[in-house]
Amino acid sequence: MAKTKYYFNSQTLKYEKVKINLGNKFLKVLGFVSTALVFSFIIIAFAYTFLDSPKEKQLKREISELSFQYDILNKRMKQVNGVMKDLQQRDDNIYRVIFEAEPIPLEVRNAGFGGINRYKNLENYDYSDLMIETTKKLDIISKQLYVQSKSYDELAKAVNSKSKMMASIPAIEPIDSRKLSSISGFGYRMHPIYKIRKMHDGMDFASPIGTPIYATGDGIIVAVGQERGYGNRVMINHGYGYVTKYAHMSKFKVRTGQRIKRGDVIGYVGNTGASTGPHCHYEVYKSGKPINPINFFFNDLSPAEYMVMLEVASQENQSLD
Q1: Confidence of residue 222 (pLDDT cuts 50, 70, 90)
Q2: Using alpha carbons only, what angle is made at residue 58 by residues 52 and 60, rounded to the nearest 5 degrees?
Q3: Taking each helix axis from N to C terminus, what angle separates 128-161 and 54-90, rounded to the nearest 10 degrees?
């Protein structure tokens, strides 16, 4: 119940009841409502500016998760791109050389990515740059995979017509990978004796003395005996310009002039010559020039195993000879 208000009338010297007409009541209500609206607007503006609604909080969490997943996706695509470049390099400089095929031109591998804007439908969005960049990377990798698969189809036909050649080319590790303790790769390495950075023309496969050493391809034994620095070593002529050398053996199991098959035991791991520990030093020559043996382990390693070996062999550690 509203309180009755009075005022003192100085003329009548009496307290009289305050009478509020309808207009004053309306103005009073209007003033109250206006004040309430102003304060409500201020509160809502503050809330929208500094406070997030549950929906906004959920959207921000989703955006954060999407950004995190994109970073992971981007890193994986970089890894895939690195593997693709390695496959392309091996295809052009190893496999196609072996089968006397011309390398695939760079413009063919990268064809189809110029000209019209094929990503126009992804423009004018909040995250257009992100979507366009990701889609473009996937398109490039897809195109390169298609070109590479067609190249392998061509090489597969060459393999079928050159089975004898494929049996002769070095294609496996000289040591059973299950018996390896460490690997040193091809390239400049720290020499264990001279302590200088020196070219290492082969790969070192560290393994216990007496571990079998296998011929990596069909061929003829052309040298069995000692060689300065290499100790006890065996050399195999595989034909087609390929020769392999196996050094630091403890003993031999072949003789000069003997024909051997890929996988035959030719000797055993030792520590002879300029060696700082039991291992097999393995070299591959093409037309008289040493080449990286890691490009030829395509018969006994899975893609995952090959990637692990590639990473280990590329480290510039100290060689064993």
Answers
A1: very high
A2: 75
A3: 30
